[in-house]
Amino acid sequence: MTSSASVIVVGGGISGLVCAHALSKAGIQVLLLEASQHAGGMIASENHDGFLLELGPQSFSGTAVLLALCEELGIADQLLQAPASAPRYVFINGALKAVPLNPAAMLTTSLLSSRIKWRIARDAIGNSHPPDHDESIAAFVRRKFGQEALDRLVGPFVSGIYAGDPERLSLRSAFPQLYEVERSAGSVIRGMLRAAKSRKPRERPTLQSFQEGNQTLVRALASKIGSNLQLGTEVVGVAARRESQDVKFEVRIRGGGASEQVLLANRLVMATGADVAGVLLRDVNTAFEPVLNGIEYVPVAVVSLGYRRQDVGHSLDGFGFLVPRSSGLRTLGTVWNSSLFPGRAPAGHVLLTSFVGGATDPTAAALSGGELAQLVHREIAPVLQIRAAAMFSHVQTYRRALPQYNIGYEKRLGALEKLRRDFPGLFFVGNYLRGPAIGNCVDQANETAQSLLSSYT
Prior knowledge:
Blueprint: E1 2-10, H1 14-25, E2 30-33, E3 45-48, E4 51-54, E5 60-61, H2 64-73, E6 79-81, E7 88-92, E8 95-98, H3 103-106, H4 114-125, H5 137-144, H6 147-162, H7 171-174, H8 176-185, H9 188-198, E9 207-210, H10 215-225, E10 229-230, E11 233-243, E12 246-255, E13 261-270, H11 274-280, H12 288-293, E14 297-308, E15 320-322, E16 331-335, H13 337-340, E17 349-357, H14 369-384, E18 392-403, H15 409-421, E19 426-428, H16 438-454
Parallel strand pairs: 1-2, 1-13, 2-10, 7-15, 13-19
Antiparallel strand pairs: 3-4, 5-9, 6-9, 7-8, 11-12, 12-13, 14-17, 14-18, 15-16, 16-17
Helix pairs in contact: 1-10, 1-16, 5-6, 8-9
């Protein structure tokens, strides 16, 4: 049996949902196919014994596009904003040190030595240019500010965002803003200050979530897409058929116990993980697979622990803390959920979510849930003066959690774009293209939808 749709989107994570919604809103006949029984990918919220857990991203930056989408979906009134002044900490020499959040604070913090502060001041008045080659984050930080800044500040920050290795991550790809401010201003500090001054107050992203968790966004998008979202529908292969100047796509699906079916589409959006997209596009062009499969993903375990408030000696006033790899701990960092948003824990209790694994500790994903919960409790208990065992625990492990924007990533994405141009009507969205944050995915998916719409004119 063969049927058709104007656009088929493969993959119902946040990128696929946003892209399909934007197309549907524009009047395009779109079909969104998701292999699992749940849309949203790693964005999932669950309530256990009064603890509201985020099984993936714990919060998101309220970018202009994302906030406008919330208004459009009618869920803006459910948004919660974390305290803007909530301090972030780094675990250094057995104690939590507040992270400086602006250049001025860097010059007064006890987190950094006078040597690093001098290098920060020197950057502010000096002039430098990035090298021509693709520079790692570690090499950039050492060149500008020294090894201590890498160990104490940037390394933990990189672990918190990418769960990555700063020795391998590309500055241009993972943090393009830092590369650009040095290139354009000759100084990281001056460039950051100029960028901050140029933003209007309402354009400055804020840390947010929803009253009932981040899955609120997923549910709203799925509801808008309606019956055009087909869950439990596995795409098993894709072929391309050239017709004059156009390309038609044949999408083979299987689901619901039915026999294999072929769908025809004028446009195809691949919104799966990079590895899945590479396999599915083998019959379109075998060159897609090595390009996409070469994108590395790292495993991450999300460990949620609930405690009685009276058993935690620390004030938990803040966002949470990050852990340098030099500390010897396997925990990458811990978010103090119940300090950021109301309703995350029952009265008299706190919810703490920690992360283990990443590029520097990939074997952690092989540990059982019980072992991971015990490991995290053992490591954070002395830091937060926890005097009793957790009353509640939940562990979610992702074998392929976060894409790594490693050295050479720009060339890889360039090769992907070159291949894509040979097949008009083929598009890609996902967290491996412009950053793993929810806001990045929403922005990129929305822009891709607009590009697709312009291809009809």
